[in-house]
């Protein structure tokens, strides 16, 4: 086993751990806004880490280049999609959790 394979395995494990934490957050967090926060942050980081591990493992082959191209696509599309879902949920009237401290959309509407 060479050093690149060790680094790719490390990125695979880190990515799987972040994906697992994101899935646990989807199950455990109290409202749609917190769940989307969990899914967007940790699952995006986990998936990008797995894709980077694929790139390290395969190098500049077809699979490695596709994995490298997919990283910014997933990063930007997941954040935009989560923002659109959160904004739509808020406009549709889905209530925040009782213990929510900050409501930026309400502050924005009041201005």
Molecular structure report:
The chain is an all-alpha fold and 111 residues long. The chain has a single domain, classed as Helix Hairpins. The chain contains 4 helices and no strands. The N and C termini lie far apart (60 Å).
Q: Predict the CATH topology.
A: Helix Hairpins
Order of helices and strands: HHHH
Helix content: over 70%
β-strand amount: under 5%
**Termini, distance in Å?**
60 Å
**Oligomerization state:** single chain
Main beta sheet: none
In short:
With 111 residues, this protein is mainly α. The protein has one domain (3-110): Helix Hairpins, CATH 1.10.287.
Features:
111 residues, Helix Hairpins, elongated
What does the secondary structure layout of this molecule look like, with pairings?
Blueprint: H1 3-28, H2 32-58, H3 62-92, H4 104-110
Helix pairs in contact: 1-2, 2-3
